DNA sequence: TCTGGGGTCCTAGGACCC
DNA sequence: TCTGGGGTCCTAGGACCC
């Protein structure tokens, strides 16, 4: 049996942990640069605010409504969701984190004759008879209570024989209060009932394209899809991924369980606050993206041998000339040194920058990722002394930035110079975030004071 | 004026190896 | 007229996820 624990309106719920006065009120959280709506409370959804809606349009359309608005605060969301995962780790026999707000759990159970036979004696579950899986249902309800009480995060829990069915169950847990935040699918009867109530376009693994094709073929619910023969699915789509989804809806465990321990590519990109025309300004941003990529590489103990940069103008501005480019550079030796990656990324940027355009966004992608030890070195061009020096420098920077806060020390090329005599700014300030909350769980200066 | 930022997997086709 | 039988690696494009 699988379970999925899904944080309800995750970012909004994080903000509400320290703003309980906002419970019951419409709340939205914005993307970087306060661009789009990325999270909405149920009240905001009920008003008709759509996901991905540009913030300025929301302000026009919902003028006069009392909507609480937050810039995204990933430091806070990362910390609170880590607490949720820690509780899951304590309560579940096996788990893997799927995204910032979702976590799968796994129970080594067999369903036979409608009863749950618990094989894992260490688990806190109790065997049940009669096919209603009462033990698991109670486990889920208790997990919800514990997370709500200890972290303040409301979660929805779905439990079923496959991950796709568990995701489906969690939607019912969210939608109907009668489930007490936990929905269990442990019989064929419940499975078929759930499938009939579930629109095909909301099935995990069915995106916009497949949904449109299926609907054109007369498939409107998960049930319609599951009822087709497997051979029909294979013949129609000739695609193993959608076939696995079909299997999972029919109760066959088919989607692989891998948790991506190490990223195979790492990307850091941002839209600029406004538009930039000068190479020097863009270079500072790219240096920061590159430095972040290097940090991420070191954190997962890997090196990269390809550094790529992309740069583009503002696609929404049809009145301006458009430019888009992507270029990469391959290195003989993989690296995770901030100095190396910033240097290469800057060189690539120089090659692709064309004056005269209004640039809106850039990004750095590192690829060709491999372990940092043992590492393949260059036979002819290897300076061991330099390599060790950079390694020690990076380690020192990481340590200082961890203890004293991000960007306490950065390379000179990462500093934004405002003008003569003015203090240079750091990366975090280059992004617009007019409605950002504080970080009471990670910064002493923001700690909550009780009266 | 203002429009996010990350990732993964699969497949087909081409280049190359013996 | 007839033109082998295995492989690997890489890339681009298309789909999906949060």
Structure, explained:
The chain is an alpha+beta fold and 451 residues long. It is built from 14 helices and 14 strands. The chain has a five-stranded mixed sheet. A four-stranded antiparallel sheet has the order 11-14-12-13. A three-stranded mixed sheet has the order 3-2-4. Helix 10 packs antiparallel against helix 11 and helix 12 runs antiparallel to helix 13. It starts with a strand and ends in a 47-residue tail after the last helix. About 4% of the residues have low confidence. The chain binds a DNA duplex (18 and 18 nucleotides) through helix 3, helix 8, helix 11, strand 11 and strand 14.
Number of strands: 14
- Percent helix range: 25-40%
Instruction: Look at the structure and give the mean pLDDT.
Output: 89
Radius of gyration: 25 Å
Strand order of the largest sheet: 5-6-1-9-10
Summed up, the helix count is: 14
Strand content: 15-25%
Largest sheet report: 5 strands, mixed
Give the topology string: H per helix, E per strand: EHEEHHEHEEEEHEHEHHHHHEHEEHEH
Q: What is the terminal separation in angstroms? A: 47 Å
Structural class: alpha+beta
């Amino acid at each position: 049996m699988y379970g999925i624990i899904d944080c309800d309106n995750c970012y909004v719920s994080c903000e509400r942990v320290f703003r309980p006065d906002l419970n019951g009120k419409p709340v939205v959280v914005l993307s970087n640069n306060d661009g789009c709506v990325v999270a909405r409370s149920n009240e905001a959804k009920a008003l008709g605010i759509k996901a991905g809606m540009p913030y300025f349009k929301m302000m026009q359309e919902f003028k006069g409504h009392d909507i609480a608005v937050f810039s995204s605060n990933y430091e806070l969301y990362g910390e609170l969701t880590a607490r949720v995962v820690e509780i899951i780790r304590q309560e579940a026999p096996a788990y893997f984190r799927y995204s910032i707000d979702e976590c799968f759990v796994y129970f080594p159970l067999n369903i036979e004759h409608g009863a749950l036979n618990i094989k894992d004696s260490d688990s806190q579950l109790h065997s049940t008879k009669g096919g209603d899986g009462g033990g698991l249902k109670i486990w889920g309800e208790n997990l919800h209570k514990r997370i709500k009480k200890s972290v303040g995060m409301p979660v929805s829990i779905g439990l079923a024989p496959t991950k796709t069915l568990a995701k489906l169950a969690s939607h019912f847990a969210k939608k109907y209060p009668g489930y007490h935040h936990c929905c269990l699918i442990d019989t064929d009867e419940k499975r078929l009932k759930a499938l009939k109530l579930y629109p095909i376009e909301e099935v995990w693994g069915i995106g916009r394209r497949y949904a449109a094709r299926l609907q054109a073929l007369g498939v409107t619910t998960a049930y319609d899809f599951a009822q087709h023969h497997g051979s029909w699915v294979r013949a129609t789509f000739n695609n193993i991924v959608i076939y696995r989804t079909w299997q999972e809806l029919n109760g066959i465990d088919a989607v692989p369980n891998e948790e991506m321990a190490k990223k195979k590519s790492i990307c850091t990109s941002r839209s600029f606050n406004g538009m930039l025309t000068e190479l020097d300004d863009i270079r500072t941003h790219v240096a920061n993206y590159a430095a972040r990529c290097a940090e991420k590489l070191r954190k997962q103990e890997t090196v990269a041998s390809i550094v790529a940069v992309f740069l583009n103008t503002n696609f929404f501005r049809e009145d301006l000339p458009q430019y888009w480019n992507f270029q990469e550079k391959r290195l003989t030796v993989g690296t995770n040194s901030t100095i190396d990656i910033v240097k290469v990324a800057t060189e690539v940027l120089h090659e692709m920058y064309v004056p005269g355009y209004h640039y809106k966004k850039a990004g750095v992608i590192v690829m060709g990722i491999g372990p940092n030890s043992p590492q393949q070195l260059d036979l002819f061009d290897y300076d061991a002394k330099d390599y060790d020096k950079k390694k020690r420098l990076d380690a020192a920077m990481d340590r200082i930035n961890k203890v004293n806060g991000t960007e306490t020390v950065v390379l000179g090329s990462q500093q934004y110079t405002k003008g003569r005599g003015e203090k240079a700014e750091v990366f975090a300030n280059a992004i617009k975030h007019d409605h950002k909350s504080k970080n009471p769980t990670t910064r002493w200066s923001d700690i909550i004071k009780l009266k």
